[in-house]
Amino acid sequence: MTTTITYVDFVDSIAAALQFISHHHPPDYIRHLSHAYSREASPPAKQAIAQILINSRMCAEGRRPICQDTGIVNIFVRVGMDVRLAGFPASVVDAANAGVRRAYLDPDNRLRASIVEDPLFSRRNTGDNTPAIVHVELVPGSVVTVDVMAKGGGSENKSKFAVLMPSDSVADWIVDMVPAMGAGWCPPGMLGIGIGGTAEKAMLLAKQSLTEPLDMLELKARGPRNDLEALRIAIHDRINALGIGAQGLGGLTTVLDVKIATYPTHAASMPVAVVPNCAATRHASFTLDGDGPAMLSTASPDLWPDLPMPDGIESRKVNLDTLTRKDISTWRAGETLLLSGRMLTGRDAAHKRIDDMLARGEPLPVDFRNRMIYYVGPVDPVRDEVVGPCGPTTSTRMDKFAARMLPATGLLGMVGKAERGPTAIDAIVGNGCVYLAATGGAAYLISKAVRSSRVLAFADLGMEAIYEFDVENLPVVVAVDSGGDSIHASGPRVWRIASA
User: Fold this and answer.
1) Residue ranges per domain, the chain?
2) Enclosing H/E stretch for 75
3) pLDDT for 8-43, tens place per residue?
4) Domain spanning 1-24+66-151 has what CATH number?
5) Which of 245, 278, 253, 275 is nearest to 443 (CA)?
6) Position 413 confidence tier, pLDDT thresholds 50, 70, 90
7) How many C-beta atoms lie closer than 10 Å to residue 52's C-beta?
8) E strands within 408-480?
9) What's the whole-model pTM score?
10) Pairing between strand 144-151 and 283-288?
11) What kind of fold does domain 316-499 have according to CATH?
């Protein structure tokens, strides 16, 4: 029996699924994250997990993005050989991109366009987040099944690959790789591991495995039934014993689950790929059977734990408008702050432009003296919003600019996510600055702390322009203090010992 799948149903279903996953975590992720929250003993990590859970529920209710990085879209399409595709003006890949375009330009929940068409030179943004990464497979059956995933750049950038010796330990290599990933992938999340095949096959296996439901809690409760499940548990437990914790701040949970997919390989080879998925885990699956577009159901509000909003009782309140270098010299790594007042924003493209201007001796369009700069590329606002979701981006990408920018501009400090490298820390210490970390995966919650927003410079860069935010009680943790102490070094060290 032949099933007819129309172009309209295909495009509508992909667009609806991408909109849905932009503001809905998978229920299995929420269950596992809630469990991690209940057992977390590290105060900074527990606060970060709480913010992610609160943000998750706010996004589901407000239908706004979980993360400002609404991802590069990955789509896996399996077309049954008894299916007739009707009305497709071009390829299945073109149809998938039509769905992506519609989803990301939806005026009720416009999503951030992050895709640049030329990866080497102009890096011009395509404006609609196309093209997606689309994989099409012809399989037996009379239905079309589709997995959609929106993969943030912070986690995608931390993917790892190696060809091991057949006698090597896969578990040892993976556990060694995780600290090298840093915290830019926004743990706690999950790891997709692909083993076998060839280089490209192993990477594809790892990516596809991230679309599977989290089941580590159930797996550990009943025990492994085969060697692969035992390996999953072993890698999961060994990674969490590293003490990296939520956002790399030190704690008991770094990964919520570990998925492993395998494929036959050459006798001389053992390709191994690792792809992490972040705290903004976003994916969904649907099936088209010829009976109209797919529908995804929302989760019950009871799924989320009832957590109070962060009250900041134990946090130091900071007035950014009167802040001095003497003030920040009293802050210590691991201390929590609530920021109020005006702060600047800027990320990769703005930093590159500023760096070029400084190198040429040109005046800058913004006065950075005694200011904080927030590494962020916000989502466009809708309705009555001041700004869309605006969580931090990975700070290590700005490390190479710190040595020139900090002394030349008079900045007091920076706000972002994840650790800073030695070059940036040296610049922080040498200039009496600080680095503060906001919670990756809490973008909508953070946006509610922004009272006003305006573009000050580089408007042509879109979401990478320099904005001025006026914030009230924006929660951060001192990640690197003016003496060079880093919570991303000390926190995991303490909790690794505690876990031993």
Assistant:
1) 1-24+66-151, 153-288, 316-499
2) strand 72-80
3) 999 999 999 999 999 999 999 999 999 999 999 999
4) 3.30.360
5) 278
6) very high
7) 27
8) 413-416, 434-437, 450-457, 466-480
9) 0.96
10) antiparallel
11) fumarase (3.20.130)
